[in-house]
Amino acid sequence: MPRAVHHLDLWVDDVDRAEGEWGWLLGACGWQREEGLRSWAHPDGTYVFMEHSPDQHGTHDRLRPGVNHLALTVDTRAELDRVRAESTEHGWHELYAHRYPHAGGEQHVALYVESSEGFEVEIVVTA
Predict the structure, then answer these.
(1) Which of 9, 23, 84, 91 has the fewest Cβ atoms within 10 angstroms?
(2) What is the pLDDT of residues 101-119, one digit of tens each?
(3) What are the VOC domain coordinates in residue numbering (predicted)?
C-alpha cells in the first residue's frame, strides 16, 4: 500500500532544542534520522523535515486554526509505556496523565505529549 502522507514540514522556533525533542520521539516510534539533514523517515517512506524559516512569525499555538496535533504509532503497549517513562527527560510533557492510556476513550490506547514549543503528539498503539 502506498503511503498516505508524503511528508510534513515542522517550523520550529529553537531548532537545536526541537531537534533533540523530536529526534528522540520519532526514533522511539521507529523513524530513522536521515544523514546530514534535520529529517526523519518512517519505514513507509513518509518523512518529517524540521526547520526555522525566516518567513515564520509568532509562536506555535495548536489551539488556533491549523493543525492541532500529529499522531504517530507504536506497535505495542510496552513500547508506549517506555516512551511515556522516558519522554520527560527528552523535553516532552505528558498531557492527560490522569487518564493514561485511555484519554482518547476506553477502546483507544495512546499517550499524549507536548513539546517545549507547544506541539502536541499523540502516540497510538496499533496492535
Answers:
(1) 9
(2) 999 999 999 999 999 999 9
(3) 4-126
